[in-house]
Write a structure and sequence with these properties.
The relative contact order is 0.14. This protein folds into two domains: 190 residues, MFS general substrate transporter like domains (Growth Hormone, Chain: A), CATH 1.20.1250.20; 198 residues, MFS general substrate transporter like domains (Growth Hormone, Chain: A, Up-down Bundle), CATH 1.20.1250. It starts with a helix and ends in a 15-residue tail after the last helix. It is mainly alpha-helical.
Length: 406
């Protein structure tokens, strides 16, 4: 009997189950990363053909801006629905059904025969995009707990990388003369292949909270603080997305061939920063990384305002990209561990606040620029960095668990 017990014990403790477990975790990590990539690829593919959509319906700049507004409207509609769906049905079911709907709603954009149909499809596309965003981040947070270390930022890095890939595919499709419908259909089939190959590795998450239902409800003190941090980070991100080229053209007065340099610098460091920030978060903790991120945003924008020449403005935008990189992943990571709400609901609350920042930032820049100038606008956005640093000063166990140096 002792020999039998000893044999069972040695089998359990042998490296074989451990090796199998590591392979299983690796497969799941690749699968989740692929799903984040698919999500970014679909969004970037849509964005790459916006000029063609404008030409198809002969839209003015103002009309195009009005049409594009329906995408974030759909996103805002999707946020509370996502919290309810994930809480009641689990992230796995939402991902498996929502991913196909999202992928094949993309060709419908190119197929839309009228503006009214385009508006309906854009609302649907935006709604599904944010439902997938909440469900995938809920799944990723559960996997992060299983891994026992910070990995969420690397998933967001894959979303950012997909933006570059999607833009590249779009350029090729435009060069080949493919209309948006065929381009989008091609991307939808690539997406379907990714979804089918990852299905076996999408697991049901463990519930971590009791609060559920359709949000929009008032967040607790922790979620409010995290939501404000994410709000300021996403406001900065939205401003950099929409105004980098304009700033380099009008303030930096860069040559025509260098106008996009600021945008590329920002996007490059934001994407790469997300791949390395997990290690930094693991070593130093969430609060120090958030504080430093806020300082980088403040310093980068201040450099760009005080020294608006090509070299220094580029360096400033590089710093802002690094600063923005960790903010949303950390905010989602903290929100998903709320003790008062289920992960899906908590993520929907924080996403609602952060997405509002993403929407309001670019128009705010334009309004302030009309009253004063772009340098003044960017100076005020720099204050976001200080706000993030200050809001990150209160340390709690759930906000910044003891970092591991392993």
């Amino acid at each position: 009997m002792r020999i039998f017990t000893s044999g069972i014990k040695s089998l359990i403790c042998s490296p074989i189950p451990q090796t199998y477990l590591m392979k299983s975790l690796l497969r799941r990590r690749i699968a989740l990363g692929s799903m984040f990539f698919f999500l970014g690829l679909c969004f970037a593919s849509w964005a790459a053909r916006i000029p063609d959509i404008q030409a198809k319906f002969d839209l003015s700049e103002g009309q195009l801006g009005s049409i594009l507004l329906f995408l974030p409207i759909g996103s805002m509609i999707g946020l509370p629905i996502a919290g309810w769906l994930v809480h009641h049905y689990g992230s796995r079911s939402v991902i498996l059904w929502g991913s196909f709907l999202y992928a094949f709603s993309l060709p419908l954009i190119g197929l839309s025969p009228s503006l009214w149909m385009l508006i309906i499809v854009l609302v649907f596309f935006g709604m599904l995009g944010n439902i997938m965003n909440i469900a995938l981040n809920t799944q990723a947070l559960d996997f992060e707990d299983e891994m026992g270390r910070s990995i969420l930022a690397s998933f967001h890095g894959l979303w950012s990388t997909a933006g570059f890939v999607g833009a590249g595919i779009g350029a090729v499709m435009i060069g080949l003369g493919w209309i948006p419908f065929y381009h989008y259909l091609f991307v939808a089939f690539i997406s379907a292949a990714i979804i089918l190959s990852t299905r076996p590795y999408i697991k049901e998450e463990k519930s971590r909270g009791d609060g559920g239902g359709l949000v929009l409800k008032r967040p607790d003190a922790l979620l409010l603080r995290v939501g404000l941090i994410s709000f300021l980070g996403m406001m900065t991100e939205g401003c950099m997305f929409d105004w980098s080229g304009v700033y380099f053209k009008k303030v930096v007065e860069a040559p025509a061939e260098w106008i996009t340099l600021g945008y590329v610098a920002f996007m490059g460091t934001m994407a790469s920063g997300r791949f390395i920030s997990d290690r930094i978060i693991q070593r130093y903790g969430k609060v120090p990384v958030l504080r430093f991120s806020g300082v980088l945003i403040f310093a980068g924008l201040l450099i760009s305002v005080l020294a608006p020449v090509l070299l220094w403005a580029t360096i400033g935008f590089l710093l802002v990209g690094f600063g923005v990189a960790s903010i949303v992943p950390i905010s989602y990571s903290v929100a998903g561990r709320s003790t008062l709400y289920s992960p899906g609901v908590a993520l929907a609350i924080v996403s609602t606040l952060s997405f509002f920042g993403f929407l309001i930032g670019p128009p705010l820049i334009g309004f302030i620029a009309d009253l004063f100038d772009l340098k003044t606008s960017f100076s005020l956005i720099a204050v976001n960095g200080l706000g993030i640093a200050l809001l990150s000063t209160v340390r709690t166990e759930v906000f910044d668990p003891k970092p591991s140096h392993a």
